[in-house]
Design brief:
heterodimer; A: alpha+beta; Immunoglobulin-like; 4 domains; five-stranded mixed beta sheet; 22% helix; globular; B: alpha+beta; eight-stranded mixed beta sheet; 5 helices; 13 strands; 22% strand
């Protein structure tokens, strides 16, 4: 205190000129409140470690170990899939042989309808079926319930993140969920709409049974298909020019007899600016015609193709479908805001303005990091070639980059590039809806590969490695050399603890990202006063203070006026007397 | 040649699709897979069928009840805002009744008549379930348990229940009614028809709720304010009368003015210095 007086007298000596002590005090008070340069050591709030909720285990798929191993079912061989959440081999067998050509036991091990895929008629006599009937349904995941605040038929893209989606699915049977007690969607019902594979020259009927509550259609982008079918009905899926949309409860058959091959695309063309981003889009691949070429009709959740076609196996050890998507949070909340289909339609079609939208979620094959690590690892051996079919399903351009590798672009939009003109590089640019086929060569020559490791790959547009702006999320995943992955498909990472990424709190922005790094005193922890639940406590503090202040001020005013009233009691008394007199005389 | 065959084939099938308007009876196509589960290759399915095993508490079948359920788009017409529906949304049977349901799906997609809550020891997952892709019909039988209870009936295809395909089977006097059954009960969470833009309900934080509930002023703070006011007022008055003379006020104001001018000058000098460092070129130019 004495120090302060000294400091004041040194700097503001003029105050001494003011004669009366109380006046001097008043001046001082004014000065101190004006200049806030009083030096003092105010202790800063200590660091606090935020304890987040229970982290999910890295792998909780519950998949039996034999699902990950290579094997044969129904005479169909399928490759090893060393990831936490591999495809069910029974599904693979059904997709390759058709639901009409497998045993009842295998069919019952899937969620497929018995008429989901019908394969018959080896028309060219080369040992594989050429008449394929593929039935699709359309469903909503993370939808609204009028009876509970929670979403129904759920599918988390990251811990606790459930935007609503509309997807094409192979025709299913029985329950949409994993069971009556579980809200979780069954394994077939998920993002993205699955990659569909046919063979060049196959006569394919793509039957869409619209089980969804809105009109839909399919446009076969890049797939060789006639504009009209033989009855003269539209076959291009565009409501404005080629035929009515498919109403709920109705069905339409699209016919395909493709002369060309390649990685193509299918998507809904009804209100396509919202229906494509809602999830109604997938890869459509036409494999080269070969003898005894049974192709895997669906690739659920995309990723590894466990039964690659004959032509692919001529050049490659493995094949992967990589579908990148981006989503605007506001759009994907709309179906969760109302149950009445008219309200949802109005909000989607008339109120939502895509030109004012920004993307918040970025997924690879339907999941964001860290869930991508459970199913979208590209597990490779050295000195092999791997075919990657990449689809940019974003609303904007993307720039895919694979650490530690330079892959070669072999096909653009399904069309082969002349081998001598092929480009080998490390960033692959894709405009929306474009497809690029990459040849990933794991030969360690310092160019194609820098050797074994856990090499991440991601879209190099920075937004894409966040989830609602929180990093590192988004669509990043790994090219994992076999020695870096254990039997259950867990990558042997050697960096930071991944557990916080497996909590809901991390993605709800409650977990200080660097608090667990390095030192144990949480040097990047949360300062105590604005503690962990800052989202909860902040508004309450802010809202409480004016409340308290106004109460005190109100009391102050009350006290002041009470005192004044006491002083002027004579005047007030007289006034009341005259008033009452006046009142009496008037009445 | 191959393409020719393909086109002939396509033509044939499209012709078939047009003719195929009648309701197909799947009851003759079903294959029995045991445990009351039958299925055919066109997607007709009966699960949890039970024609003869009596539930606990039933000495005999109390009645033989049969009803036909129509399902499809058509039945949503009566209930605005829905998309799918059943022709009826409530069915009444006696305890221990043998119930035969003929399920007619008039849509060209899958629908289900799926009932939950049956005893799990007799019915797999406590379910009786009919499923068919229309236009077609399928029939199944179960025996109602002996107690008064209301059972949920719905189509479990994602959003079909929410968008209209919800009903209930009442055994005896029944128990609680399920919410949001078209024509029978309200939803738990009602939609908002005020014409405003739809917005997702934001989670109300508990603290914020407490604040918004605090409409009246806190008595404690008001009282303490009053006390301070009562004490402070005479002091201030005394102070005012004694010291706030014109001369003193003038002096103080003059000092304050001089101070602010001095500090202002310093501030301007500081800003100029900073600008010089930040934009050396522009200052040179000027």
């Amino acid at each position: 205190m004495r120090n302060m007086q000294g400091w004041i007298s040194k700097n503001y000596s003029f105050i001494k000129g003011v004669k009366h002590a109380p006046m001097r005090l008043l001046c001082l008070c004014l000065l101190v409140s004006v200049s806030s340069t009083v030096p003092a050591v105010t202790p800063l709030p200590p660091s606090q470690k935020v304890t987040s909720g229970q982290a999910e285990p890295f792998c909780n798929s519950g998949a039996p170990q034999e699902w990950r191993e290579a094997g044969t079912l129904e005479g169909i061989s399928y490759q090893e899939s060393r990831v936490c959440d591999p495809d069910n081999p029974a599904d693979i067998a059904a997709f390759v042989k058709g639901t009409n050509n497998i045993s009842m036991e295998t069919l019952m091990a899937t969620n497929l309808a018995p008429d989901a895929i019908t394969m018959s008629d080896d028309m060219d006599g080369d040992g594989d079926p050429d008449r394929i009937v593929i039935k699709l349904e359309i469903m909503e995941i993370n939808g609204h319930s009028p009876d509970a605040p929670e979403n129904v038929t759920t599918f988390d893209i990251a811990p606790g993140i459930q935007p609503s989606f509309w997807v094409f699915v192979p025709k299913m049977r029985d329950m949409s969920t994993k069971g009556f007690g579980s809200p979780e969607a069954n394994a077939l019902l998920r993002l993205p709409s699955p990659a569909i594979r046919i063979e060049q020259g196959d006569v394919v009927w793509l039957v869409v049974e619209n089980t969804h509550y809105f009109p839909h259609a399919i446009h076969l982008h890049g797939v060789d298909h006639p504009y009209m079918d033989r009855r003269g009905e539209g076959n291009d899926g565009v409501g404005q020019t080629g035929g009515m949309d498919i109403m709920p409860g109705q069905t339409k058959t699209y016919v395909i007899n493709s002369r060309q091959t390649g990685s193509m695309y299918y998507h809904c063309h009804v209100q396509s600016h919202t229906h494509i981003p809602m999830g109604m889009a997938g890869l459509f691949i036409i494999e080269e015609n070969r003898p005894n070429n049974w192709v895997q009709t669906f690739n659920i959740g995309d990723g590894q193709v466990r039964h690659p076609s004959v032509a692919v196996l001529e050049h490659y050890a493995q094949e992967y479908d990589l579908h990148f998507q981006s989503f605007d949070k506001e759009l994907h909340q709309i179906p969760q805001t109302a149950n009445d289909v008219r309200l949802v339609a109005k909000a989607m079609n008339q109120e939502y303005d895509i030109t004012e939208s920004t993307d918040d979620y970025y997924t690879l094959n339907g999941r964001a990091f860290p869930y991508t690590l459970r199913e979208s690892l590209i597990v490779v051996d050295p000195d092999k070639k791997v075919k990657l079919r990449v689809l940019n399903g974003h609303s904007e351009g993307m720039a895919l980059h694979i650490h530690g590798h330079k892959a070669t672009e072999t096909h653009y939009d399904g069309v082969a590039q002349n081998p001598v003109a092929r480009v080998t590089r490390d960033v692959y640019a894709l405009a929306p809806a474009q497809r690029v086929d990459l040849e990933l060569d794991t030969h360690d020559d310092g160019l194609h590969s820098y050797g074994s490791g856990l090499w991440i790959f991601h879209d190099h547009v920075e937004n894409a490695f966040t989830t609602d702006g929180m990093g590192d999320g988004g669509s990043l995943s790994l090219v994992a050399y076999r020695e870096f992955v254990d039997e259950q498909g867990t990558p042997k990472t050697q960096g930071m603890n991944l557990a916080p990424f497996f909590t809901k709190e991390y993605w709800a922005r409650k977990h200080p990202v660097w608090q667990d790094l390095g030192e144990d005193w949480a040097s990047f922890g949360e300062p105590e006063s604005t503690a962990a639940n800052s989202k909860n406590s902040k508004p309450s503090v802010a809202a409480n203070q004016p409340e308290t202040g106004s109460g005190f001020n109100f009391g102050l005013l009350l006290g002041l006026s009470a005192y004044l009233a006491f002083l002027k009691r004579a005047v007030i008394g007289a006034a009341i007397k005259t008033l009452t007199l006046k009142f009496k005389t008037t009445s | 040649m191959k393409r020719k065959i393909a086109y002939i084939f396509l033509t044939l099938i499209s012709g078939l699709a047009v003719a195929d308007q009648d309701i197909v009876d799947h009851n003759k196509l079903l294959m029995d897979h045991g445990y009351g589960h039958s299925m055919d290759m066109a997607g007709g399915m009966v699960m949890g069928e039970n024609k003869d095993r009596l539930p606990a508490g039933c000495d005999k079948i109390s009645e033989e009840k049969q009803f036909t359920v129509h399902a499809g788009r058509e039945y949503a017409k009566k209930y605005p805002g829905t998309i799918f529906g059943f022709d009826q949304h409530q069915w009444q049977v006696k305890p221990c009744a043998k119930v035969t349901v003929e399920f007619i799906n008039e849509d060209r997609v899958r629908h289900q008549w799926m009932m939950h809550g049956l005893p799990k020891n007799m019915y797999n997952q406590g379910m009786f379930h009919l499923e068919i892709t229309g236009p077609a019909k399928i029939t199944g039988t179960f025996i109602a348990p002996s107690d008064d209870k209301t059972y949920l009936v719905h189509c479990d295809i994602a959003q079909h229940m929410e968008k209209g395909m919800k009903g209930q089977l009442v055994v005896g006097k029944g128990s609680a009614t399920f919410p949001s059954i078209p024509g029978i009960s309200d939803p738990v969470i009602a939609d908002n028809y005020d014409g405003k833009k739809l917005e997702k309900a934001v989670e109300v934080l508990p603290e914020a709720a407490a604040v918004s509930g605090q409409e009246s002023l806190d008595v404690g703070t008001v009282l303490s304010g009053t006390a301070v006011g009562l004490v402070l007022t005479p002091l201030l008055l005394w102070f005012y009368r004694k010291y706030v003379t014109i001369e003193n006020t003038k002096k103080c104001m003059a000092k304050l003015l001089a101070l602010s001018v001095r500090e202002g000058k310093r501030m301007v000098r500081l800003i100029m210095a900073i600008l010089k460092v930040a934009f050396p070129d522009s200052t040179k130019a000027s």
